[in-house]
Amino acid sequence: MARTSAGSPRRLLAQVFAVAAVTTAVLSLDATVVLLTPVVFATAARLEMRARPHVYACTHLANSGSLLLPVSNLTNLLAFAASGLAFGRFAALMAVPWLAAVGVEYAVFGRFFAADLSARPGRTAHPGPGPGLPVFTLVVVALTLAGFAGASAAGINPAWAAFAGAAILAVRALARRTVAPPALVRAADLPFLLFVLGLGIVVRAVTDNGLGAALAPLVPGGTSLPALLATAALAAALANVCNNLPAVLVLLPLAAPSGAGAVLAVLLGVNIGPNLTYTGSLATLLWRRILHHHGSAPDLGEFTKLGLLTVPAALVLGVLALWAGLHLLGG
């Protein structure tokens, strides 16, 4: 990105958007926050550019860019199981909403950060010998994605495709002594797995003991455009109140009887909505911690204002695209 931006902050922003959207879709939103944000900091520093637009793009694209595939977000995996859709049909229905959300974000960022993007950088990067492509890893990732689609078509849980890809990469890394077994155990993040399990149990208990009944009248039935808009808005609001993971666990059982369209509307709300507050998603909280580590704490007012400019527009256009896709492709 440093070499090909030619010293243009706007060109660098476009590249960050493209890389973040693809990284989020293929490797999940946490990869964009944890891996890409430090890279963007380093790139902006190398070019002596103002990093704010590019760093904010990482967290916004981690959330709103995670609509495309069932593996892009943990919320997607939960919705995928409840929707009854095949992997390919899920991606086909969510492709245009994904593009719409990313497009809205890019348009707003260009206006919101106009001053930062118009500032002259200190210098341009001189092309040098770049690192070689990690061909083996890219092939394994591509085969894993193909395995997701194949497993879904065969009625096999996509987790087995993910496990196979991870096992191949882990065995190769161990054989080449580039990683030690304890590091693989830490990478599995067992405490986080227990946290998700515990959260699911707590949410199920709360839902069964009153919350589900209280929210049921607020969830509209059917997949008309007004119903989809209301469902997505409710999901976005709930995600900002209690985080997107509990929100999707609560709303999926209420939306599932209306069909796949209603489930995907919930997904639009819990993936786009978290860009409004720090607490909307775990990815945003991770991003905020990374910024503090780099001595660049985000401003709450700026973050909220940017969210107010992007979330409603992205949500409305995303729902419109979903509604059109349901009519063209069927739910």
Task: Walk me through this protein's architecture.
The protein has 331 residues and is mainly alpha-helical. Helix content is 75%, strand content 0%. It is built from 15 helices and no strands.
Short characterization:
75% of the residues lie in helices and 0% in strands.
Fraction of residues in β-strands? under 5%
Low-confidence stretches: none
Give me the number of helical elements: 15
Main pleated-sheet profile: none
Quaternary: single chain
Average pLDDT value? Answer: 90
Compressed to H and E, one letter per element, the order equals HHHHHHHHHHHHHHH
End-to-end C-alpha gap: 39 Å
> Helicity level, as a percent range?
over 70%
Q: Which of globular, elongated, flat, extended, rod-shaped describes the shape?
A: globular
* CA gyration radius, whole angstroms: 20 Å
Count the E strands: 0
Topology record:
Layout: H1 9-27, H2 29-47, H3 52-64, H4 74-83, H5 87-112, H6 114-118, H7 135-153, H8 159-175, H9 181-188, H10 190-215, H11 225-242, H12 244-255, H13 260-272, H14 282-293, H15 300-329
Which descriptors would you attach to this protein?
331 residues, mainly alpha, single chain
